[in-house]
Design brief:
Layout (H helix, E strand, L loop, with lengths): L1 H21 L18 H19 L4 H4 L12 H17 L7 E4 L2 E4 H23 L7 H12 L23 H8 L5
Antiparallel strand pairs: 1-2
Helix pairs in contact: 1-4, 1-5, 2-4, 2-5, 5-6, 6-7
InterPro entries: CHP03086, DinB/YfiT-like, Maleyloyr_isom, MDMPI_metal-binding
GO molecular function: metal ion binding
Pfam family, one: MDMPI_N
Length: 191
């Protein structure tokens, strides 16, 4: 579990560094496209910020129904960087609480082990971190330990990654493709 928390923190910090590179709220970079079809940089950061806002609520035992639509729509407001910083800090703190990963959280699909929920959060931070880096035109390497973990985690679960899931369906890759290229292909991305 310590490894999972550590990788989550590494990827949250990477995503944070990228968010800080976007610039002030009126910077043109917020409107750049990303590899996520139809999503700008702002849309992508908004999605991840919303996810971070959910974590403390769910880990505190609240249900999806109790949280309701509080985190729907634009959660970035006038200062997207500050909104991200506050949301990710609260999420990291909630997952790091003693016993948090032994809990069960109420997701839209039903009760889920908190450590499985954290794996999903890690996946989103890593893959969408790559998307954000691509949208910004900066270094897009994913932490190698994260790549290794996620390849093990998701390689046998490609049915969950079919078109219509949260990510695009898996793509074929060359036999000699590197690990990051393989991981990205699982999530419908070409490195």
């Amino acid at each position: 579990m310590d490894e999972l928390l550590s990788l989550h923190r590494v990827n949250a910090e990477r995503f944070s560094r990228l968010v800080h590179r976007v610039g002030p709220p009126d910077a043109d970079a917020w409107q750049r496209p990303t590899p996520c079809t139809g999503w700008t940089v702002r849309d992508l950061v908004n999605h991840l910020t919303s996810e971070q806002l959910w974590a403390p609520e769910l880990l505190a035992g609240r249900t999806v129904a109790e949280v309701g639509d509080r985190f729907d729509g634009d959660v970035l407001g006038a200062d997207p960087v500050a909104a991200w910083d506050a949301a990710v800090a609260a999420s990291l703190a909630a997952f790091a609480e003693p016993g948090a990963l032994g809990r069960t959280v109420d997701l839209s699909r039903g009760p889920t082990a908190a450590h499985d929920y954290l794996d999903e959060m890690l996946t989103d931070l890593a893959v969408h971190g790559w998307d954000l880096a691509r949208g910004l035109g900066v270094e897009d390497d994913i932490d190698p330990a994260t790549v290794d973990r996620l390849l093990v985690e998701w390689s046998g679960r490609t049915d969950e990654l079919a078109p219509g899931s949260a990510f695009a369906g898996p793509l074929d890759v060359a036999d000699d493709a590197d690990q990051q290229t393989r991981l990205l292909a699982l999530f419908g991305r070409r490195a």
